[in-house]
Specification:
The structure is a single chain. The radius of gyration is 18 Å and the shape is globular. The N terminus is likely disordered. 35% of the residues lie in helices and 16% in strands. The protein is α+β, with helices and mostly antiparallel strands and 196 residues long. One iron/sulfur cluster (SF4) binds next to loops.
């Protein structure tokens, strides 16, 4: 039996600090094989905050049940894929900002109508999809996180996988991400340069 405990630390709109800005939430999971936890940052309105946090807690539970965690154990510093996502993705966004992909194709079960109401320019000509850079990207945060489509929910880049299995450290993965961001910006500058 698993026990899931979700504690919102700073749901806002007021309060918050440098250490725990508004939107910070900690999610914990305890079961027969040990305990694990992660810190998330959901800087959304109250309703979206609740939806996103509930989804992250369920996603964490699903990953553990499906065996997609590197350490649901009593290790001193357990790290789940959800925890890796929380540490890398809010500083990256390379899979949402047009650097890695040019669009996101919808999958069975995704609602084009729902995504359109959320402001995503879904085209339904041959294959239902929306372009990147994604209209839902705000800084490095997904504005529609609770409603993001299947491709976005399922995608795990090489860096996430490498950190989750302990091949790469978080700091090393962040260095690779920053380097990729700098290179992407250099290409953007070159493309904007007069005469190009
Ligand atoms: S490229 Fe990887 S680390 Fe970056 S936001 Fe996407 S999944 Fe996260
Ligand atoms: S919907 Fe969210 S997760 Fe998917 S590409 Fe857009 S910003 Fe990224």
């Amino acid at each position: 039996m698993f026990r899931k405990h979700t504690e919102s630390i700073q749901a806002g709109p007021g309060g918050g600090s440098d250490a725990k800005p508004v939107g910070t939430v900690f999610i914990g999971l305890a079961g027969p094989t040990g305990t694990t936890g992660l810190r998330q940052f959901n800087p959304y309105d109250r309703e979206t905050f609740k939806q996103a946090t509930a989804n992250q807690a369920l996603e964490m539970l699903c990953r553990v049940l499906l065996g997609r965690t590197s350490s649901m154990s009593s290790q001193k510093h357990p790290i789940t894929m959800a925890a890796v996502v929380a540490q890398l993705c809010p500083q990256c966004a390379l899979c949402c900002n047009g650097v890695l992909f040019k669009d996101v194709e919808l999958q069975p079960g995704d609602s084009a109508a729902r995504l359109k109401t959320l402001g995503l320019p879904v085209s339904e000509k041959r294959v239902a999809k929306f372009p990147q850079p994604c209209a839902a990207l705000e800084g490095c945060s997904c504005r529609v996180y609770a409603d993001r489509p299947t491709r976005c929910r399922d995608f795990e880049c090489a860096s996430l996988k490498s950190v989750a299995v302990g091949k790469t450290g978080v700091a090393g993965a962040l260095r690779v991400i920053r380097d990729a961001q700098k290179r992407a910006e250099k290409v953007r500058r070159l493309l904007r340069a007069p005469g190009d």
